[in-house]
Amino acid sequence: MTATAPALDRRAALKARHRQAILDAADALIAERGAPRFSVDELAERADVSRRTIFNHFASLDEVVMTLCTAALTDAIDEFQTATAAVATPAVPGTRASLFDAVTLALHSIDLPAVVAYLWRVLDGDAEANGSPHVMQDVFSRATEQLAADAARRSIDVDELDVELMVSSVMNGIAVIAVHWVRRTDGALDDASRVVWAELFDRLIATVRTGYAPAP
């Protein structure tokens, strides 16, 4: 007998609740332990679900962690989109330079150090030998397509390829300076570490803006 629509809706709602409970439990365990160091059984107990339920939603604990990172980055993307929507119309609309200025201004408005510190903790970033810097790069790269699409919608006169190249350069650059920032600050969130971030970010933006052409 075919399930009714209300039954399917209830099943979908239950699956969604279980999935969110798993993610919330993983986030809480990471906050308590300072890193994603927990077993499937510990996660299942905290989420009040079975081991089987966890693997019905996620292929592994690593996938749970990466999903948390993606969620954090999605929040940052939403913040970015809100910021770009609030940016005043540039003095010279429809140019690559004006779009770059708008993107840069929007990124300045985001608390990127807080996002990076969270991602680094979730990714157990102190273990660089395990390839965490590359994972950080992958996490930021996931944002490129969405940010590029949003930027392109806001500046239809700029070639789509130029938009993608610009956003990709900036986002991958942020992933690079994120690793350097954590090495220098241990991911601390204080005035001194934010000064370091500002210096690294300004250096990134200057490099992307000017490129590597020889000075005239």
Unreliable stretches: 88-92, 126-131
Q: Strand tally, please?
A: 0
Q: What is the ordering of alpha helices and beta strands?
A: HHHHHHHHH
Class by alpha and beta content: mainly alpha
Radius of gyration: 20 Å
Q: What is the percentage of strand-forming residues? A: under 5%
**Principal-axis shape:** globular
Please describe the biggest sheet, giving its number of strands, its sense, and whether it closes into a barrel.
none
Cα distance spanning the termini: 77 Å
Number of domains: 2
Could you tell me the mean pLDDT? 80
Number of helices: 9
Explain this structure to me?
There is one protein chain. This protein has helices spanning 5-33, 40-47, 51-57, 61-86, 96-108, 112-122, 132-154, 160-185, 191-210. With 216 residues, it is an all-alpha fold. The protein folds into two domains: 5-57, Arc Repressor Mutant, subunit A (Orthogonal Bundle); 62-210. It is globular, with a radius of gyration of 20 Å. It starts with a helix and ends in a 6-residue tail after the last helix. Mean pLDDT is 80; it is low at 88-92 and 126-131.
